[in-house]
Amino acid sequence: MTNRQARELRVHFCKYGQDHVFKFWEILSEDEQLQLLQQAKSLDLDYLSNIVDGLLHSNARRSRVFGTLFPARFVKFPNSEVDWQKWKEAVTVGEQHIANGKVAAFTVAGGEGSRLGCAAPKGMLQVTPLKKKTIFQVFAEKIRAAERKYETSIHWIIMTSERTHNETIEFFGKNDSFGVENIHFVKQGQMPAVSGDGKIIMESRGKIAMHPDGHGGALKALGKSGMLSMLENLGVETISYFQVDNPIVRCIDPYFIGLHAKNRCQVSSRMIKKLYPEERVGVFCERDGRTCVIEYSDLPKEQAMLRDSNGDLVFCAGNAAIHLLDVQFVKKFNGSDLDSEVTYHVAKKIIHAVDQFGNTIVPQSPNALKLEMFIFDILPFAERTVILESERLSNFSPIKNSEGLDSLKTCQQDQLKLFTKWLLAAGVDIPSDENGLPPFDIEISPMFADNKHDFLKKWSALANKPAIAAGQYIE
Ligand code: UTP
User: Fold this and answer.
1) Cα 147 to ligand 1 centre (Å)
2) Residue 441 has what pLDDT?
3) 247-290 pLDDT, tens digit each
C-alpha cells in the first residue's frame, strides 16, 4: 500500500521535477516512509511551482518594489480643540463597536522565533518586570479588562505554527485560559524550503524541510479553520490583529477601532515614527494611490534618508505590525476575488539539508529560500485604510532578540518607563533617570489599566493610593 502510494506520488513529483524527494525511499524505515508520504501528500505542487516560477523567473517583484513611492498619509496625534473633538467622537464609535460585540482579538503566535532562540513559544516568555507574567497572560488580562469595561464578550483567536501549537494549547489548558472564555486556536500553514533552482529541500533522507508560511498565512488560516464564518455568525466585523512578540500593544483600543469603523476601512494600521533612517522597520508608503508597506531592506537609501525642511524623516511612518482587519475583506482572500493576490516574499537561509549521499549537512552559506507571506501585503488591495500615528512607548516594544535591541530586557524597561510616565502624569513623585527609567521594579496590571487615560481616571478615584516604592504592584 505504502509502496504503491509512493510510486504514484513519485510519478506526480517527477512531473514537477521534484522526484529527488523520494531518492532514499528504499532505505527509509517504515515510520520514515509514512512520515514522508504524509508530508508529500500535503504539498500542492502546482501551487508551489506557480509561486516559485513567479518569484524566481519574473521581474514582477522588482517592479513592485521599485515603483514610485510617496510617504503615506497618516492621522496625527490630536493637537488642537478640533482634533480632540474628533478623538472623542472616534472613541465613542469605537466603544459602541466593542460593546456591541463587533470586535475580536487575534494574536499571531506562530513562526519560528529563530532570532530569540527560545525553545518554548514566545507567548510563554515571562515578560512583566515584577510579577513575571507571561505574554499570553498579559494579553488575556487586557482582553478581560476590555470585556469588563464594555460589558461584552470578546473572542480571542491565537494563530500557532507546527512548532508552537501543542505547547501553546497545553499551556492555556493548564492555566484555565487565564480566565478568557472564548478562545480559539488555529494552526498556520507551512511551505517547503526550496533551493535557488526551485527544488524542494530535504532536511533528512525522509523529511522535507518545511517552515511556517509567514504571518500573512493568517489570512488563509482564518478562512480554512472556519474562524471567518464563526466571526461572521457572531456578528464580528473587526479583527484586532497583533503579534505575540509585542506585549506592550493595546489589544483592544477604542480610538483606533473607532477611526477604523467610522471610515468603514478594510484595513487600518498603527504607525510609529521611525527613530533613524536605518531603523529596521517597514515603512508605510503610497504607490498608485494605495497604501503599502515597504520593507526596510527594500526602501531605496535616498528615500530612507530624505528629510523635510524641519529635519524630520519624510518616509517616517514605521510599521508597528498592529492592524485592524475587516472580516468581509479578509474573506476576499479566501476563495474569492483576491484569493491568490497576497504572494510570497523570499528570504535566503542556511538550513540543514541532505547531500547527494543522504548525509545531513549544515552549509556555510545560504542554501534555502524560505517563502513567507506578510500580513501587510493586503494593504494595497484595500480601498479605505487609516494609518494612525501612535506613541511608541505605549504601543511597540517587540521582543525579537535574546539580547541587545528589541530583547526581553528592553521590553521590560519600556514597561517600567510606561508605568512611570502614567504615575508622573497622575502627580506621583517617582524617581527616574534621564531615560525615564525608575531605579526599582513596579508593575501596573492591565486589569487596573492598559493605557494612560484609564490609569489617570482609576488612580484619581482610588480612596487609598498606595505609596510607590520598589515592588509595588497596582491591580
Ligand atoms: P517575526 O517576523 O519576528 O518571525 O514574526 P519569528 O518567527 O517570530 O522570528 P524569527 O524571524 O524567526 O526570529 C513577527 C510575529 O509574527 C508571528 C510571530 O509569532 C511574531 O509574533 N509569525 C511570524 C507567525 O505567527 N507566523 C509566521 O510564519 C511568522
Assistant:
1) 27
2) 98
3) 999 999 999 999 999 999 999 999 999 999 999 999 999 999 99
Three-class SS of the chain? CHHHHHHHHHHHHHHCCCHHHHCCHHHCCHHHHHHHHHHHHHCCHHHHHHHHHHHHCCCHHHHHHCCCCEECCCECCCCCHHHHHHHHHHHHHHHHHHHCCCEEEEEECCCCCCCCCCCCCHHHCECCCCCCCEHHHHHHHHHHHHHHHHCCCCCEEEEECCCCHHHHHHHHHHCHHHHCCCEEEEECCEEECECCCCCECEEECCEECEEECCHHHHHHHHHHCCHHHHHHHHCCCEEEEEECCCCCCCCCCHHHHHHHHHCCCCEEEEEEECCCCCCCCCEEEEECCEEEEECCCCCCHHHHHCECCCCCECCCEEEEEEEEEEHHHHHCCCCCCCCCCCCCEEEEECCCEECCCCCEECCCCCCEEEEECCHHHHHHHCCCEEEEECCHHHHCCCCCECCCCCEHHHHHHHHHHHHHHHHHHCCCCCCCCCCCCCCCCCEECCCCCCCHHHHHHHHHHCCCCCCCCCCCEEC
Ligand 1 atom nearest residue 115's Cα: 13
pLDDT of 92-114, one tens digit each?
A: 999 999 999 999 999 999 999 88
The alpha carbon of 112 and the centre of ligand 1 are apart by a number of angstroms equal to: 6
**Ligand 1 centroid to residue 215 C-alpha, Å:** 6
pTM above 0.85, yes or no: yes
Which tens digit of pLDDT belongs to each residue from 34-74?
Answer: 999 999 999 999 999 999 998 877 655 544 555 689 999 99
Nearest CA to ligand 1 atom 16: 215
Q: Ligand 1 centre and the CA of 330: distance in Å?
A: 20
Indicate which residue's Cα is closest to atom 8 of ligand 1: 113
Q: What per-residue confidence (pLDDT) applies to 56?
A: 78
Confidence of residue 424 (pLDDT cuts 50, 70, 90): very high
Identify the residues whose C-beta falls under 6 Å from ligand 1. 108-115, 122, 159, 161, 188, 212-215, 217, 243-245, 400
Q: Ligand 1 centre from 53 Cα, in Å? A: 25
Atom of ligand 1 nearest to the CA of 112: 7
| Confidence class for position 2, pLDDT limits 50, 70, 90 | confident
Query: Is the per-residue pLDDT at 349 higher than 50?
Result: yes
Q: What pLDDT score does 1 carry?
A: 57
Domains in the chain (CATH in brackets) are: 3-61 (no CATH), 68-399 (3.90.550.10), 407-475 (no CATH)
**What is the number of the ligand 1 atom nearest to the C-alpha of 160?**
25
Among protein residues, the one whose CA lies closest to atom 23 of ligand 1 = 111
The Å distance, Cα 110 to ligand 1 centre, comes to: 6
Residue nearest to atom 3 of ligand 1 (CA): 400
